[in-house]
Amino acid sequence: MTKEVYRYTATLPKSEIFGLQSQMRRAAVSIPSNIAEGHGRLSDHLLRVFLAQARGSLYELETQIQLCHDLDFIPPDAVKDLFELCNEVARMINGLLKTLKPKDIKQHAS
């Protein structure tokens, strides 16, 4: 998905190099980066935290894709392709989150 975001954002207007292009690329890179960092922490709790951050970046990217569509910066077929990739990544992240059930935290009465 990240490679596709780079490919499609290369066609954005030059005026968006420091705007949407930069934001979309950062969000797209952030998704796999957070997953990798969470995995490297060797803790289910921290992996959940980083997966949640990856999901947040994914939602950010979806918003930016929609904005590109609304501004006619990328063609409808590209928007469709990117949203399909986002949905696939969201399913994978949500599946991972379901396998990492948080441990019950017992509260102690003082």
From TrEMBL:
InterPro entries, alphabetized: 23S_rRNA-intervening_sequence (IPR012657), 23S_rRNA_IVS_sf (IPR036583)
Pfam families xref list: 23S_rRNA_IVP
Gene3D superfamilies referenced in this protein's UniProt entry, alphabetically: 23S rRNA-intervening sequence
Superkingdom field: Bacteria
NCBIfam families registered for this protein in UniProt: four helix bundle protein (TIGR02436)
Record's protein name: Four helix bundle protein
